[in-house]
Amino acid sequence: MTGLDHQSFTLTRDYKADHARVYDAWARPEAKRRWFAENPGKSHVELRHWEMDFRPGGTERGEFLVNGSEINYRGRYVICTRPGRLIYNYDMDADGEMLSASLVAVSMEEAKDGCRLTYTEHIVFIDGRDKLEYRVQGTEELLDKLGHLLVPA
After folding, report:
1. What is this structure's pTM?
2. Could you read off the pLDDT tens digit of each residue along the chain, which spans 153 residues?
3. Separation CA 45–CA 37 (nearest Å)
4. Nearest Cα to 108, choosing from 149, 136, 80?
5. Which domains does the chain have, with CATH numbers?
6. 100: which residues sit within 8 A by CB, 6+ positions away?
7. CB-CB contact of 5 with 116 (8 Å)
């Protein structure tokens, strides 16, 4: 047992969509599933289960198979203020071993050409089972997928 490692990071993205549309892509379960849970082109990631109840006190749950390991994601929404503020917490485990617990704040503000999203995550990594660099990389990929979803067809 190596203990608890407290970390945090902030990412910013500018999207060419208004902040209400960005919020909706986060709030609507079918939209969030597309950018957050589904992984087309990644044969090593299989979505097994996804459910989401977007409201203060509502929960979100995902089960994934990643490189043969069972990954579970469990979240709870604390604040959902349309069109631009979210606060939620989540934890993750791999094969029944807790990886981390996080508190996330997301703001979506009007910007000159659309929306500026700021994502801040405070994490406690447990017993060295995950690393900040992996979490940052994964979150960057998710926010990029969100951006692709927002591009008009």
Report:
1. 0.93
2. 569 999 999 999 999 999 999 999 999 999 999 999 887 666 678 899 999 999 999 999 999 999 899 999 999 999 999 989 999 999 999 999 999 999 999 999 999 899 999 999 999 999 998 999 999 999 999 999 999 999 875
3. 10
4. 80
5. 4-150 (3.30.530.20)
6. 91, 92, 123, 124, 125, 126, 129, 130, 135
7. no
Task: For residues 19 and 25, give the distance between their C-alpha atoms in angstroms, rounded to a whole number.
Answer: 10
Task: Please tell me the distance from the alpha carbon of residue 102 to that of residue 67, in angstroms, as a whole number.
Answer: 23
The answer to whether the CB of 126 falls within 8 A of the CB of 101 is: yes
Q: Report helix, strand or coil for 143.
A: helix
Nearest CA to 93 out of 66, 120, 119 is that of 66
Encoded tokens for 55 = 């409201």
Q: In what order do the strands lie in the sheet with 114-126?
A: 4-15, 114-126, 97-111, 85-94, 69-81, 59-66, 45-52
d(C-alpha 148, C-alpha 142), whole Å: 10
